[in-house]
Amino acid sequence: MTQDLLRLTDVTVEFGPPKSPVRVVEGVSFSVGKGESVGLVGESGSGKSVTSLAIMRLIGGRVAKGRIEFEGRNLLDLPAAALPAIRGRDIAMIFQEPMSSLNPLMTVGDQVAEALLLHGWHNRTARRKRTIEMLDLVGIPNAEGRLGAYPHQFSGGMRQRVMIAMAVACEPKLLIADEPTTALDVTIQAQVLDLMKKVRRELGMAILLISHDLGVIADVCERVVVMYAGRVVEEADIRTILTRPQHPYTRGLLRSVPRRSHEAERLYQIPGSVPPAGSIRQGCPFRDRCELAVPRCAEEMPPMFRFGPSQSAACWVTAAAEGATQAGAAA
Amino acid sequence: MTASTDPVLPPLASQPSAFTTLRRVIFDRPATIFALAIVVLFILVAALAPLIAPYDPLAQSILDVNKPPSAAHPVGTDQFGRDVLSRLIYGSRNSLIFGFVSPVLAAIFGTTLGVVAGYFGGIVDRIISRIIDLLLAFPELLLAILIAAVLGGGFWNVVAVLTVAFTPGFARVARASTLAVKQEPYIEAAVAVGLRTPMIILRHVVPNIAAPIVVLTTLWIASAIRLEASLSFLGIGTQPPNPSWGNIIRDGLNNLFGSPWPIIGAGALITLVVLAFNLLGDAVRDALDPEASK
User: Fold this and answer.
1) Which of B60, B171, B46, B29 is nearest to B99 (CA)?
2) Which residues of B are less than 8 Å from A119 in CB distance?
3) Angle, helices B206-233/B245-254, rounded to nearest 10 degrees
4) Which domains does chain B have, with CATH numbers?
5) Does residue A323 carry a pLDDT above 80?
6) Measured between CA atoms, how close is A167 to chain B, in angstroms?
7) How far away is chain A from the Cα of B255, in angstroms, using its nearest Cα?
8) A296-319: pLDDT as tens digits
9) Mutate to test the interface with B, among A78, A91, A103 (most CBs of B within 10 A)
10) CA–CA distance, A65 with A13 (Å, rounded to integer)
11) Per-residue pLDDT at A8 exceeds 80
12) Most B-contacting residue of A55, A83, A94, A101 (CB-CB within 10 A), to test interface
């Protein structure tokens, strides 16, 4: 992991007035290697979308602290005028709502071509050829004939394919996908996920996939970062997360995935809900919903403990039980 | 999904184009056909005034003072013996020019202000919005009289007056529409793809707020014609002896019992043309926003 494409260090995002800020994301650190696919998982309000928007600097709030380095450059130091050159070409993004993420008044072909034009494809015929190529790659049948079609003539799955074509047209090094399949039905979901894997394989880019659905993440990603209440609580490779989760929150998430073998049982749910952003000032944000909580959890926020070569989690209790050492000393 | 089976997409040909919708909306309703005919006739008459008008609109004739309609003067004559029909025909040119120039200029200025205010928000929005609120607090006619009183009459002054009077309405609509469009994910997607702000506004915001602006422009044309007539009637619009429907009525009022025909003729034309533009505006609205018609 020496070749980090993207590295977030201690990123804190605040909203609201500077005098009484609400911290939505606090001290988030993780990295994405070249060509690696990383999943960012957590329930609604855990700060995963805010984190991804902060990387693109599309955020309404402030990044109060930390560094977001892309190929060694801190994106937070760049002037606003330098951002359009990076967006789309180095880092691209696809969004949650395929139904409304395309301009209803522009043809599909023009929208894909617009992304190309912005990043150096000035020759009209070459651009057109590339547009057809991209639409073909994402599996739009009769791509050439569809160039002049408008978004309302496409179904949700088709629109998400067009979004992906737009995003990957300039072969970005990193594709951030914010819940790309949430608004789609299950069969289309599987197709879009397969498409993302295919595009990644063919274009060799890294993917940061944001989802609340561990199944989706497990399908696409090699490594997982689990977020809760604006903090990273666990990070590990996908196999380890699924077999030996160390943070009680991750365990809860895994237990609440419906399984066919447990059909008769009532589906597990983590009691309570995510605390409102900024309400946790001290201790572990998960302690009120945690089955393992001990008094120390209310007093001190646990640091990340290293549980294995590729796994770390922020929990006092499991760290003590497993004899994990505090991470961070090495980093 | 193979290329041959494509159950999700309807054939492209079955999608009605905007033009088809427009044609359907216009020709499905007799009132719209009537309005369109009046508007076309109005534009033709104004454009061809020198060819159509039977007399010089300024030529006076002592012998023909205050005549009722006759074969020689189909709408009679006024107190100076001028042919009312010719004056009405030439007067339509003023109405046409004012009717189009001011709303179009106001649409351009107002949309620019509104989009800037709506897109950037913050202090820019607050300043522009307060100025708009201030201007909107005055009725258009009052505002027009106020500005005309300061600037005086004359063609460009009246155009300026009407433009200033109409701009706030466009700015308000453009701002509200921009606020709605700005929230759309495709704007965020355009930012994420690396588009710079001016291009986002031109390519993604403006086309998506065009429909209400176009409708408003059509409706304001009727108001502009009415307001130009009002200003001319009050003596601060088109100056006599140049004919305008407003000052024809003004002249006629002093001579109401001598000859009522100038007032009747100009009044009827203003009513007819304003009505026609309003009906057309409604049709355009229905064509651009099919949900509003039901």
Assistant:
1) B46
2) 194
3) 20
4) 28-48+83-293 (1.10.3720.10)
5) no
6) 7
7) 56
8) 888 888 888 888 888 888 888 888
9) A103
10) 7
11) yes
12) A101
Characterize B9-27 residue by residue with b for buried, 16 or more Cβ atoms within 10 angstroms of its Cβ, and e for exposed: eeeeeeeeeeeeeeeebbe
Cβ separation B1–A191 shorter than 8 A: yes
**What 3-state class would DSSP assign to A279?**
coil
Q: Is the pLDDT of residue B293 over 60?
A: no
Residues linked to residue A178 through DSSP beta bridges, in sequence order: A210
The CATH T-level fold of domain A4-98+174-326 is: Rossmann fold (3.40.50)
Pairing of strands A231-237, A311-313: antiparallel
The tokens of A227 are what?
């977020």
Which residue is associated with the tokens 């020759």?
Answer: A123
CB A98 within 8 A of CB A195: no
| Annotated domain spans of chain A | 4-98+174-326
Inter-chain residue contact B3 with A142, CB threshold 8 Å: yes
Residue by residue, DSSP assigns A182-242 as: TTS-HHHHHHHHHHHHHHHHHHT-EEEEEES-HHHHHHH-SEEEEEETTEEEEEEEHHHHH
Structural contact between residues B125 and B108, judged by C-beta atoms closer than 8 angstroms: no
User: H/E element holding A161?
Assistant: helix A156-168
CA distances from A267 to A84, A241, B11, B189 (A): 45, 20, 44, 37
Is it true that the peptide bond before B241 is cis, omega within 30 degrees of 0? yes
Q: Do B207 and A58 touch (CB under 8 A)?
A: no
Residues of A in contact with B193 (CB under 8 A): 87-88, 92, 114-115, 118, 166-167
What lies within 8 Å, CB to CB, of B242 at 6+ separation is B58, B90, B94
Contacts A–B by Cβ distance under 8 A: 89
ipTM of the prediction greater than 0.85, yes or no: no
Tokens of B170: 């466009």
| E strands, A126-201, in order | 174-178
What is B229-288 written as a DSSP string?
A: HHHHHTTSSSPTTS--HHHHHHHHHHTTTT--HHHHHHHHHHHHHHHHHHHHHHHHHHHH
* Confidence (pLDDT) at B10: 46
Q: Phi and psi (nearest 5°) for B122?
A: 60, -140
Q: Do B193 and A158 touch (CB under 8 A)?
A: no
- Kindly report, residue by residue over A275-293, the tens digit of the pLDDT: 777 676 678 888 888 888 8
* CA B293 – CA B102 distance, rounded (Å): 28
Answer for the pair A12, A26: CB distance below 8 angstroms, yes or no. Answer: yes
